[in-house]
Amino acid sequence: MPKWGMVIDLDKCTACQACVVACKQENNVPSGHLDDAAKARGEVHRDHDIFWMRVLTQAKGEYPKPEIEFLPRPCQHCEKPPCVSVCPVEATYRNEEGLVLQRYDRCIGCRYCMVACPYGVRNFNWHEPEYPMPQALSPAASVDSDGNGRGPQPRVRGIVEKCTFCIQRIEEAKRKAQAEGRPLKDGDVQTACMQTCPPTAIVFGDLDDPNSRVSKLRTDRRAFRLLEDLGTNPRVTYLSEG
């Protein structure tokens, strides 16, 4: 059974936002009412924007020449996710491969999981998604994040959604490997953010495979994880700059 994880090299990240755009397109992340620019700005100012992947910035050093550091932040897919234990309807759960996923049709929008998550990676869907063209929908992403492929349907208003490590791509790679009569190998699965990253700062793979790139990078001397003292054991590892 794979143990999926991600490594992000902050020394390579240029904050180009390609990962953010790729994530939105791949997973049919709602964009809200972008046909009305003024209204869209107002929604953003009210924190009603939805991003499964964000690139955070932080100034280091003193004015007038501070250094700007970048931190891509997807869901951390914790080994001990606090969001799971607080959901009253079991809409959020960990699957057998350790991915923290959402059952969108069970979610009642109480947002307990958003309060419990220390990483701020969960999004409340404030909008009825509007897609001007059917081609804008990714055919692989579905209503549920279980990878069963229920079709390119937008998620409804009032539910909580988040990064799934592109589980639809994981399931597709599994089916392809099974059809070819072989096990999954390193590199078979690429998340949208990994595939799109120009400086190859993002690496995804099986942490249980000692020969995978992600396993080797996780033992790098620069490796660290966000808020490790909380004991959530995130599966996303960062490599510090320098």
Task: Outline the structure in words.
By secondary structure, this protein is an alpha+beta fold. It has one domain (4-239): Alpha-Beta Plaits (2-Layer Sandwich), CATH 3.30.70. It is 21% helix and 17% strand. The protein has 7 helices and 10 strands. It has helices at residues 18-26, 37-45, 82-86, 112-116, 167-179, 192-196, 213-218, and strands at 4-9, 54-60, 67-73, 92-94, 100-102, 123-124, 160-161, 202-206, 223-224, 236-239. It has a 4-stranded mixed β-sheet. Strands 2-3 form a two-stranded antiparallel sheet. Strand 2 (54-60) and strand 3 form a beta hairpin.
Keywords:
21% helix; Alpha-Beta Plaits; globular; alpha+beta; 7 helices; four-stranded mixed sheet; 242 residues; two-stranded antiparallel sheet
Task: Spell the H/E element sequence.
Answer: EHHEEHEEHEEHHEHEE
Shape-level CATH architecture = 2-Layer Sandwich
- Give the C-alpha Rg: 18 Å
Q: Biggest sheet: strands, sense, closure?
A: 4 strands, mixed
Oligomer: single chain
The helix count comes to 7
Task: Kindly report the spatial arrangement of strands forming the biggest sheet.
Answer: 8-1-10-9
Gap between N and C termini, in Å? 34 Å
CATH names the topology as: Alpha-Beta Plaits
Helix-residue proportion: 10-25%
